[in-house]
Specification:
This protein is of the alpha+beta class and about 290 residues long. It is built from nine helices and 13 strands.
């Protein structure tokens, strides 16, 4: 075997770090379809990477926005598997490689809106959730999809404080889960997800408030009845099941009519459905708009 010294290797021959970090996704895509082009859903500037990876909500690591970045070093995102169960034809336990293999990874630039009044624009890497769910053969009576996240108190120290009931649970109506805007994210900014951003697999639903985007998913369950999500159980006055961005519905403490984009000084007007109304509003026709939060 020929072994080269660093001095013998041209810089152009060195694999870029983002490609190396995403090598499993790259190899998976090679055996199926090419990586798709970027989907840009906003003309707003992308939020600085440092802000996206340092200002996060992840209560399993602490309630401060920087706690996940500071306290996540012990978390192990590999090896990883996801249990699939409930009303479907092909339940089972699937490794992360099983889940990624048939799906080309694409970049999606999405607005991300938090119920606390701040927002970001994030270049996620992932694939449509619906493509994965179809593989499991949902039954006709599966009206909702429930997601459960990892529960490791030794690696996630704030779990022991009991702020929420863990493991963290979220849910979507089936048509929401199958919508092409809904993705499972595996990375951002062209690199694998960091712990604080939900490694190795997280949900992204861009027209909803950020708490719907469950991180570090370990179970997908097809169910007939609407799941009780964790924040809804903890405080139903603030957090509803649907959590669609609705500037007309204030929380008990403050208005949702404006938001502050991380990195900006001035507030901006909050858009209904986070600006994705043209694509998703029809799913809620005839429903009370105040229920949608």
């Amino acid at each position: 075997m020929l072994i080269k010294k660093l001095s013998d290797v041209a810089s152009s021959d060195i694999t870029p770090r983002p490609l190396y970090l995403r090598r499993r996704e790259f190899l998976a895509a090679l055996v199926t379809l090419p990586i798709a082009s970027k989907m840009v859903t906003t003309t707003d500037g992308v939020t600085e990477k440092k802000a996206i990876t340092s200002y996060t909500n992840y209560y399993e690591f602490g309630s401060d926005k920087g706690d996940a970045g500071r306290n996540g070093a012990a978390f192990r995102p590999s090896p990883w598997s996801v249990v699939v169960e409930g009303e479907c034809a092909r339940p089972g336990t699937y490794t992360l490689e099983d889940i990624l293999k048939p799906h080309p990874i694409e970049e999606r630039v999405y607005r991300h809106r938090c119920v606390e009044g701040w927002s970001m624009v994030i270049p996620w890497d992932g694939f449509p959730l619906g493509n994965l769910l179809k593989r499991f053969g949902p039954a006709s009576k599966a009206r909702f999809v429930e997601f459960t996240t990892v529960n490791r108190p030794k690696e996630m120290p704030a779990i022991r404080r009991g702020v929420l009931n863990y493991p963290y649970v979220e849910g979507l109506r089936m048509d929401e889960a199958m919508h092409p805007l809904t993705i499972l994210a595996t990375g951002l900014y062209g690199e694998s997800l960091l712990t604080q951003n939900g490694a190795p697999l997280r949900l992204v639903v861009p027209w909803k408030y950020g708490f719907k985007s469950a991180k570090a998913i370990v179970k997908i369950r097809f169910v007939e009845k609407q799941p009780l999500n964790t924040w809804q159980e903890a405080n139903p006055y603030y957090y509803g099941f649907y959590a669609n961005v609705n500037p007309a519905v204030p929380t008990p403490s403050y208005s949702q009519a404006t938001e502050r984009r991380i990195g900006d000084f001035f507030m901006r007007r909050t858009l209904p459905f986070n600006g994705y109304g043209d694509q998703v509003a029809s799913m809620y026709a005839g429903m009370d708009p105040r229920r949608l939060f």
